[in-house]
Amino acid sequence: EIVMTQSPATLSVSPGERATLSCRASQSVSTNLAWYQQRPGQAPRLLIYDAYTRATGIPARFSGSGSGTEFTLTISSLQSEDFAVYYCQQYNSWPQAFGQGTKLEI
Amino acid sequence: QVQLVESGGGLVKPGGSLRLSCAASGFTFSDYYMSWVRQTPGKGLEWVSYITGSSSSVYYPDSVKGRFTISRDNAKNSLYLQMNSLRVEDTAVYYCVVGGSHFDYWGPGTLVTVSS
After folding, report:
1. Cα torsion B92, A44, A101, A9: sign
2. In this predicted model, what pLDDT tens digit does every residue of A47-78 receive, in sequence order?
3. What span, in angstroms and rounded, lies between the C-alpha atoms of B10 and B18?
4. Which of A7, B42, B48, B65 has the greatest count of CB atoms below 10 A from its CB?
5. How far is the C-alpha of A59 from the C-alpha of A98, rounded, in Å?
6. pLDDT score for B42
7. At residue B35, what are phi and psi to the nearest 5 degrees?
8. How far from each other are the two terminal CA atoms of chain B, in whole angstroms?
């Protein structure tokens, strides 16, 4: 079973700054990795799939990179609505697994 | 646009049963794999089951295998999760989700509480 580890647990940044979130898999997942955003009181929302493909309607300031075991989600210029919890998820092998999340806070 | 609305959550005693339902609209339901994903404060997000568009294949993680059954009715654009032999650790918000690998759209969720 693949374990996904996200770092840091909490990231404090300011609006307009760049944020870099990391996700590590315990074994290779190729590029079968997704990122989700969850705002308080809401369901998660798909941001990125296949490691770097933005989902429908996702702004260009969100970008994903990486392959194998190391992945990064970058938000180029933080907007107020971007302060949320971000999860990575691998779907290369069963069972799919999520990371524990990174909270992006001001 | 895609809409998913879960129902059927509530309070149940350990060992009891619940059936969750999900009404889907805004897309061709039968064309898509569907899944259930749950979320707890302690364990985070956990995939619970998925079903192919034609119901030909279903999958479960070991944590729910033998206790949970996923099904769908394409004529009614509906997804279901029958949960039996519920345990305290099944307490979570359960989401109906479009997709079987990455999860493209999520419903708002329904809370299931297993407690005596």
Report:
1. negative
2. 999 999 999 999 999 999 999 999 999 999 99
3. 8
4. B48
5. 23
6. 79
7. -140, 165
8. 40
What distances in angstroms separate CA B79 from CA A44, A95, B33, B49, B53, one per listed residue? 19, 20, 10, 11, 11
| Rounded Cα distance, B62 and A11, in Å | 33
**Type of residue found at B72:** R
Mean pLDDT, chain B cut into blocks of 10 residues (116 residues total): 96 98 97 96 90 95 96 98 97 96 95 96
In angstroms, the separation between the Cα of residue A74 and the nearest Cα of chain B is 19
Question: Which residue has 């949970």 as its token pair?
Answer: B68
Structural tokens at position A42: 């809401």
Dihedral in degrees, nearest 10, Cα atoms B91, A85, A37, B90: -10
Question: Quick check: helix, strand or coil at residue B72?
Answer: strand
Sole residue written with tokens 């064309």: B31
Both tokens assigned to A24: 């590590």
**Interface test with chain A among B103, B106, B111, by most A beta carbons within 10 Å:** B103
Separation of alpha carbons B50 and B100, rounded Å? 6
Q: Which residues of chain A does B109 touch, with a Cβ-Cβ cutoff of 8 Å?
A: 43
CB within 8 Å: A91 and B44: no
B109: left (phi over 0), alpha (psi -120 to 50) or beta: left
- Which two structure tokens, joined as six digits, stand for A68? 């194998």
